[in-house]
Amino acid sequence: MNKTIKNFLNKIPKTDIHVHLDGSLRLSTLIELAKQAKVELPSYEETGLRETVFKDKYNDLPDYLRGFSYTCAVMQNAENLERIAYELAQDNLLENVRYLEVRYAPHLHINRNLPSIDKIVQAVYKGLEKARVEHDNTEAVKNGKDIPFKYGIILGAMRYFNENMSPYFAGLLSSMPYAPSTEVYKIASLELARAAVELRDDLNLPIVGFDLCGPEKGFPAIDHHDAYRYAHKNFMEKTVHAGEAYGPESIFQAITDCHANRIGHGTFLYHHDTIKDSDIKNPEKFSYYLAEYIAKRRITIEVCPTSNLQTIPKLRSILDHPVKDMIKNRLSVSVCTDNRLVSNTNVVKELSLIVNNVHITKKQLQDLVIAGFKGCFYHGSYSEHRAFVRTALNQYKLLEKEILGDISDSDIL
């Protein structure tokens, strides 16, 4: 990548609408908090943790997920949650991310110090809000040279959990030893959906969406239909991790049974060969129509390239990733980080990975960046959202003219 394009990617306003709080700590903060909480780490040096836990390459998904046991262990009090949320917002602001949606599973943080979902959510809110106030009070924002910082919180339910994941889950499982595990999962997700709506409506917290995380295979989204129906009936926006490790059927289920407004990952959207349902007589056509439906309805796909390359063995390079086809077919695609620490990435790196390897035009790059502003679950009115998108687009266009200048409209590489 030449220096001009790199400079442009650094300076333009950006979004991250799929980033997990517990996967995005600063490594230095993890070490410091682990020492304070007496959490045992494989190493207390950043280089040591990069070699043993938070690597560039992982063997498989379990290897990738290993790091979350360490990060979640230091996120068990309000002070740490507030600090981690504040630092995440700061890190994004430094790379000119101007809209951020932070997602996490509150049930992973319930304990004696944090006995309720509302205390967990308010701690994260305080950290994000502190960063917002600091940024919006800068001279650059006041004189119009920079745009305000906006954010939202997405609460994530778990497709699967066990007694080792949190005291909450341990208590829930032990209190219903004879209930099928799927029934217990349903109860937890419905409770979270109710909490999300109540915190949004009663405390006016920026809870902008509901999510479902965890392994797809064997744990279908339809098991959580009650939670999603509750969110849907209460006008809560919805996203679902779908198509990350399973095929088009998972994405279809997210849209139809869970009323998903967005799709997390969607990596196997075009993999009709993974379809298992015998009632689908023409898998290739099913996949095609599904992609067209998503495109026409402008259902934004939260694409996380580096994370996918690290957890899906068949993706040997970004050229094997469907993002190039999504762009070509004009789907609404927003490039996201997933987990900044675990994937050792940021928004600029994710955009650079695509720009360096996929032949895209200036207009396609603009669409890729602005899709996050358009597809975000904005905490505010439709008119306010439209105005914010216009502000971001104007800033983008100004920087495009200033930095890219005479670079051809047909090719940015």
Short description, anyone?
With 413 residues, this protein is of the alpha/beta class. Helix content is 49%, strand content 12%. Strand 6, helix 13 and strand 7 form a beta-alpha-beta unit.
Describe this structure in words.
- With 413 residues, the chain is an alpha/beta fold.
- The protein has one domain (3-404): TIM Barrel, CATH 3.20.20.
- The protein has helices spanning 3-11, 27-37, 46-52, 61-65, 68-73, 78-94, 117-136, 139-142, 167-175, 181-202, 225-233, 248-256, 283-296, 305-311, 323-328, 347-357, 362-375, 382-404; strands at 14-20, 97-104, 150-158, 207-213, 237-242, 262-265, 300-303, 333-335.
- Strand 5 (237-242), helix 12 (248-256) and strand 6 (262-265) form a beta-alpha-beta unit.
- Helix 6 packs parallel to helix 7 (117-136).
- It is globular, with a radius of gyration of 21 Å.
- The chain starts with a helix and ends in a 9-residue tail after the last helix.
Q: How much of the sequence is in beta strands?
A: 5-15%
**What does the average pLDDT come to?**
94
What order do the helices and strands follow? HEHHHHHEHHEHHEHEHEHEHHEHHH
Q: Which term fits the overall shape? A: globular
Query: Strand order, biggest sheet?
Result: 1-2-3-4-5-6-7-8
**CATH class bucket:** Alpha Beta
CATH H level, superfamily name: Metal-dependent hydrolases
State the secondary-structure class.
Answer: alpha/beta
Radius of gyration from the CA trace?
21 Å
Give the SSE map:
Elements: H1 3-11, E1 14-20, H2 27-37, H3 46-52, H4 61-65, H5 68-73, H6 78-94, E2 97-104, H7 117-136, H8 139-142, E3 150-158, H9 167-175, H10 181-202, E4 207-213, H11 225-233, E5 237-242, H12 248-256, E6 262-265, H13 283-296, E7 300-303, H14 305-311, H15 323-328, E8 333-335, H16 347-357, H17 362-375, H18 382-404
Helix pairs in contact: 1-18, 6-7, 10-11, 17-18
